[in-house]
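Protein Entry — a single chain follows
Fields — amino acid sequence, structure tokens
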Amino acid sequence: MMKIIYAVWELATEILEWPLGDNGRTSFKLDRLAYANGFVAHKAHDALGDFEATIHKAGIICDRAPTIWKKCVCNRDKRIVSSILKSGQSVQLIERFGADTPRSFYRRICGH
């Protein structure tokens, strides 16, 4: 789910509220994101609470950014990903390194 959150940050920032951490930077922590986006009954690090908070965020993304949601869900299927890679078309990779915010990289990956 975090990769989907990163995609939302990079491609449709406006669909979620992005809380700040204690350091004043955007926080991607589950408990803070869930609360900032209307899920107030979350007990951090409780398995059921974390699950419910994750489902809450997934529902928001699915409703407000269906194209991003569908693309991310398609990436679960290795046949689809393999086909994209073999096509030689450029792909957009979204990653987060350390405490930085997520960012995009475009690469052409030559498949065989």
The two ends are 30 Å apart (CA to CA). The mean pLDDT is 91. Strands lie at 90-95, 103-108. DSSP finds five helices and two strands in the chain.
